[in-house]
Amino acid sequence: MSRQRDQAVLKNKPDNTAFTQQRLPAWQPFLSAGYVLPTFFLLGLVFIAIGLGLYFTSNNVIEIELEYTGRSPNSSCHHCTKNDTKDCKCNIEFKVDKTLPGPVFMYYELVNFYQNHRKYGVSRDDDQLNGDLKYLKEPSEYCFPFRQDGQNRPIAPCGAIANSMFNDSFVLYKVNNSEISKVPLNSKGISWWTDYNVKFNNPKLDNGTDLKQAFEGTVKPHNWPRPAYELDTNPENNGFINEDFIVWMRTAALPTFRKLYRRIDDGLQPGKYLVEISYNYPVLSFNGQKRVTFSTISWMGGRNPFLGIAYLVCGSVSIVTGIIMLIVYIKYQGQNIRKVE
Amino acid sequence: MFRCAVNRWCAGEEKRVDSRTIYVGHHPTPEIEAFLPQNFCDNRIVSSKYTYWNFIPKNLFEQFRRIANFYFLIIFLVQVIVDTPTSPVTSGLPLFFVIIVTAIKQGYEDWLRHKADHSVNKSPVYVVNGGKIVEKQSEKIQVGDIVCVKEDETFPCDLILLSSSREDGTCYVTTASLDGESSQKTYFTVPDTSAFRTEMEVDSLSATIECEQPQPDLYKFVGRIHVFSDKQEPVARSLGPENLLLRGATLKNTDKIYGVAIYTGMETKMALNYQGKSQKRSVVEKSINVFLIVYLCILVSKSLIGTMLKYIWQSDPANDEPWYSSKTGKEKNINQLVKMFIDFLSYMVLFNFIIPVSMYVTVEMQKFLGSYFITWDKDMYDEHLGEGALVNTSDLNEELGQIQYVFTDKTGTLTENNMEFIECCIDGFKYKNFVDSCVVDGISSNDGPCSSICGMAGKEKEELFLRALCLCHTVQVKEEDKVDGLLKQHGGSYTYISSSPDEVALVQGAKTLGFTFQGMENNRMKIQNRETEIEIYELLQILSFDPVRRRMSVIVKENSGRIFLFCKGADSSIFPKVNTGKQEEIRLHVECSAVDGLRTLCVAYKELTQDEYDQISTQLQEAKMALKDRDKKLADVYDKIEIDLHLIGATAVEDKLQEQAAETVEALRSAGMSVWVLTGDKMETAMATCYACRLFHTNMKLLELTTKNIQEFKARNEAKVHELLLELHKVVVQDKKYSSVSQLRSWSTTQEFGLIIDGAALSLIMKPTQDGSTGNYKDLLLQICQRCTAILCCRMAPLQKAQIVKMVKNTKEHPITLAIGDGANDVSMVLEAHVGIGLKGKEGRQAARNSDYAIPKFKHLQKLLLAHGHLYYIRIAHLVQYFFYKNLCFIFPQFLYQFYCGFSQQPLYDATYLTFYNICFTSLPILLYGLLEQHISIEMLKKDPSLYRNIANNALLQWKPFLYWTFLGLFNGLVFFFGAYFLYDNSTLTDNGQVYGNWTFGTIVFTVLVFTVNLKLVLDTQYWTWINHFVIWGSLAFFVIFSFFWGGIIWPFLKQQRMYFVFAQMLTSVSAWLTIILLITVSLMPDVMVKVLSKHPDKGRLQKYLVYNKAADTVSTPRSPVEPLLARSFSIES
After folding, report:
1. Distance from CA of B312 to the nearest CA of A (A)
2. Can you tell me the ipTM of this complex?
3. Is B481 exposed, middle or buried (0-12, 13-18, 19+ CB in 10 A)?
4. Domain covering B422-436+461-476+495-655: architecture
């Protein structure tokens, strides 16, 4: 009887483990002033150091920005904004005072262009761009209304993004006492390696024929002057794997954005330069702006004073807070001791 | 012959709709011309909710009846129908997951129920058919079948006991599975059929049973059996609960019984009792709903703002449709208003994550899993009982931390309910201390506080008194040792079992005084007297105990033929019925004993003549035969019988205080709870208990509002009560003027009040007066009560207890109440209170069954409330706030992004991130926090009850903390978004000159978000077990690994490879790293500052504790080696 009872007792008795009794060994951190104050000071100092580094790095980046929208009549590109001009070209001159060590990066910049608009952003077919023959002929519904032309022929590359690809082109000349020499522009490696090598692929037919045949049966996007397989003469930079195209297809986050155009490996020596622009891309209809930018690059990227300043501010705030807390702490600690006594 | 058969059979009697007629064995009876077979349900028990084919629709319907699920379903449908920014998968997947998991859980539970039902329904039972025993499946039993049940079998349906294999026509039954009482109960056969022994005999019975329609009360049954014998003269017998064997109970100590099925299947009392209790909702849940509405408003207003701004922005045609993003013809043709509505819906879908489906799941899980810690707590395990705490509902875990009023029963809750016979008074003489010297005439008198009445009563009186004790009870003797009841006391070879421990104590006490009750056979009670002779009494009637009458009587017949009525009961119910005997002395003695905290009972008797008895018997029989209002009629008859008694003495039984009852009461009070004692006991006893458990103390002013005070004004009771009420109110309120500061009820030195009120006075106050001014007096009483630190309500009927709880519950402040009790009389109060606690006590398990939490002892309440309740409140409150916070800072950047994407509802984050944020990246840490967090150690919480006040009044879920969290969420959202925005001022972030796109932008924000939100929890966690480390760092690691993985593959099933290598590319940029670190730091900095500057409750309190107790030597709290907080100082100053 009593044994039975004992068994019942044992059966019902809760396990005496640290877990069930909520007694797991635990670290109980405690934000005491003793820990927090030094942390604040240390953090402040580190942040200020980083901030200074970033600030000066950013300041050392040299950026030359040239606007060429041509909205104002004084602008050299103003004549290209007229409706009836075809193959319009305009020139912008600029001066380099200090050497821009290579590589110098050349960007084009658009303002008030909503690449991040939802309907615009989904209007593409990544399967088609990956070289999938099925989707080449039958692009995704997302591409609508840039999926097929009026005769129901598939558009390659389909979609609004591809259709609106930036098509101004730039040639850079160095002006040496009225003697003009072309500066070599490198277009290799301006897109992400993974995009160029994996995500984007040209459609390939089994018999290994050329690109044009692969695109047989498709039409070019409406706004393009020539089909995708004629974007460049270099087969490594043609069709869907044209780097300018890939760069364009990586949609920007904000309505003002810049995209990498070319690299000038040797840098720019001081002197006069001239950019010859083939002005094709209309932006005035949506109050946009176009710019071309030359920039050197540091380890932290392009010129952006924000990060350095933010670090400096944050570090300073941290130190100031630390000092205030220290004062309060010392003042009230005295009172507490008196009180306890 | 002792039972007079009354023939009340009347063939023409109108058949009531609320009764049913059963033909025993389906034999048509001669008396009834029209044999109308009634349709009763079969004996199939269906506890399952679903069948195979209705599971999916029914389960889905039930799940979508929950408002949250329905909301998510709507969002999902909108996503499917309308062209929305996120794919339906993002909200469909979590919803689907939740629905599937719930469905699987419920389906599994239902499958188990099906299995159980099946095994019950198909189990073999033995039914008498055509004079033979036939095996049937249990579900085939029909009303009217005669069923044979053997020992240790369970009754398959509700049966009327026809015959038993025991000689005396009784059988023993345990109802452990019904109400948890493991003691054996005796049931009686119908006298006319008890002689049947074989199937043939039973089958030859021709009878009908008329009984009420099924009702769930286990302890109520009225019916009538008409037995038709060969002589064609029907005999009617009344049937009561003592004849009804309930389904689910088990036959014990009896070889076999025959019974006729009267209620079957879903109409059995057990099945009717399956209905769940009403759902109690905790304050936290109500707060959640309020916050939900706030967030819903935020959601709707965000969507409205977005829609409005979109159309304002689009009014410029250059923005509406730039050439690069031309609209389809379809889009152009849609009505402007429809377009706006679709845009609004799109915004709703985009922002819907602000109300996360996962919160409901997490809260449910936290509650469900969290309740295990209560069950597992070995501090709440009682060695003697062999059981620990029991959680009947996990919905109220956090409510335990919010209790403001504790209503406790006295007997069995504050006290042990382990009775010991201490003293008695026979004919005005007091007897005490007889336990150690109990020989034949060894009753020694003793000088007590009431020594003036000590002495010796005559031997005759003594023996009469002891016989009365031996006869007037319902105690059973158990011969075997097999019984597992708790109420056994080994008296030599006898074990007494009774539902009331007082009775056991009295019989036990009589035994030590020489009169031994030896048991009952065939209605004959055997008593061994002092001369070891056996006296036999025939038990004629039992006028059973009920809490209203508060007494019981037996009528017995001596061998010599003299008939006695013995009555025992509470003094207040005996004295009005007594006209002879030494009333004054005995009254004095009773009061003296009561002051010592003893439970007193008075014993009286009278002798009846045969004629008188016959009359009584007739009356009783009539009352018992009544189908309607039987209880009331019986009570009336009892009242008439129990008059003109002769008082012979009183008994005093001690009920020890439960261990640590006083400490517990004290702790609860210093935790800011008002403790009210509600008891059926009388004032003096209850007061003594209250003093003993330190509810009252000597320098407390006691206010009495009892019938005693108003007795003089018998005619104008009500007026007097009201007068008294006003007077007390004046006292209390006047005092209040002097001490208006002490509203905090804290360590004030002002006069403390205790209130004593009794049932009669209370009913006068509660009873509406003619002019309907009851509210006024009720308010007065409440005001008085709120000013009193301790309140004792005595002489309470069970319903009055519930009434008091309700009164307090419904006051303006809507305080959270807790009721704790152990007996059936506490059930109503336990059900009424916000939190009902049942003690697994001695008076059965009814309270425990109906409670939300059941604990073995009163002292366990301290840990349950102060430690578990406090912790669960903190945990759930933090969990809820954190959930809203993390989703606000999740969605707010998405809202801000709309300003920079032409209000086009472009999602900032990738769809996978949207979906997985709440499921994988931030869910487990907060769940584990909700289970493991101990911001103050359990030891500390138990040691310092005043910590409980910190969380009173739902402190952590008030608007202030809610706004703090909301602002924190908004601030973080701003920091995340604009940090990334300014960084993107120049989207060249690497030294190879390449630029990043919008998905990198979103990923930077999202990375900062996941880290900040998890690190915020790091800051909040005060109790870091390895599990916390594992889940928090694990979640972050999982996020990183997942992001690599998700971006590392071209997923064939995805239409858009947005995230391809985005995360990895992001990490190649030093600027991105620095930004992420900076933004996380900035986001967390304000919270760190607030934390440092605000009081840490544990340490701060510890210091206060030291200050207050610096004089006391007992302070052994280790001074923390950490430097004192500046925090504390701020809080004290402010």
Report:
1. 16
2. 0.95
3. exposed
4. 3-Layer(aba) Sandwich (3.40)
